[in-house]
Specification:
Shape: globular
CATH class: Mainly Beta
Low-confidence stretches: 1-13
Number of helices: 3
Helix content: 10-25%
Structural class: mainly beta
CATH topology: Jelly Rolls
Number of strands: 19
Number of domains: 1
Largest sheet: 8 strands, antiparallel
CATH architecture: Sandwich
Radius of gyration: 17 Å
Distance between the termini: 52 Å
Mean pLDDT: 89
Length: about 250
């Protein structure tokens, strides 16, 4: 079963959507609006129209979705809106952590650090030269544009056993190719934190809304469609954010 939408374009500079050709998208395998906690496990998360809110406190703040059964054989897509609000931009804030339950070394993690978005896929450090931690940060990583604290962005990523593509606001943000050791059975996903042998790390501070996961990769027009679904809800928050910047400059 497919859903039919008209494609609207939303860029990283918040252009007003423009109508285009209709595009059909298969229903997602995972679909949580995250305006309430129905159907998911969570601790110390707050739900509202802004999405799931995670905060730094004495106890971990996160949501978890179990019983996933997704394979990278045909690739997957994960998409959602997010904004980060941590007051120390150098701190790593884990947006999501995809897990293979029987192997702690197999995971797909994405986080914000230095106001840039990056991640790790098994042994592939996406921010590093040749994905090797010992070789330090890559030029491609430092060339990524920095995100604004408090502003919502639409994240969408295509992932398979050879490459990872990351889109922000429907525009290609980064592409990572020629990955090694990139096999994983996707069993669960943590939102807002990373869990490792009972320890919680890299607390995310901010909101995540409208999480969707597909058992296939999406093209750029399909990604645009997803970004539109909640645009009318997200736009007022970003509009208020831009106004707050203007007021601070007064």
């Amino acid at each position: 079963m497919s859903i039919l939408f008209c494609v609207l374009a939303i860029s990283c500079v918040d252009k007003k959507p423009q109508a285009n050709l209709p595009v059909a998208i298969d229903n997602p395998k995972i679909d949580f609006q995250l305006t309430d906690g129905k159907g998911i496990k969570y601790e110390n998360a707050i739900f509202s129209e802004k999405g799931a809110e995670f905060t730094y406190q004495d106890f971990p703040s996160y949501a978890k979705i179990d019983s996933l059964d997704l394979s990278l054989s045909k690739g997957i897509n994960i998409s959602f809106w997010f904004r980060f609000t941590g007051n120390n931009p150098k701190n790593e804030q884990m947006i999501f952590s995809i897990r293979e339950n029987d192997n702690i070394l197999k995971n797909i993690n994405f986080w914000v650090a230095g106001r840039r978005l990056t991640g790790r896929f098994n042994s592939n450090n996406l921010w590093a030269k040749e994905y090797n931690y010992e070789k330090g940060g890559s030029r491609e990583y430092y060339d990524l544009f920095q995100l604004e604290e408090g502003k919502y962005y639409f994240f969408s990523s295509n992932i398979n056993e050879e490459a990872v593509e990351v889109y922000l606001n429907s525009e290609l943000y980064a592409r990572y190719q020629h990955l090694k050791n990139a096999q994983i059975d996707i069993n669960s996903i943590y939102l807002g934190i990373m869990e490792e042998e009972g320890n919680f790390k890299y607390q995310f501070q901010g909101n995540i809304r409208d999480l969707k996961m597909f058992d296939k990769m999406l093209n750029s027009k399909e990604i645009q469609v997803l970004s539109i679904e909640s645009y009318d809800v997200i736009f007022p928050y970003n509009d208020a954010y831009e106004l707050s910047k203007f007021n601070r400059e007064e």
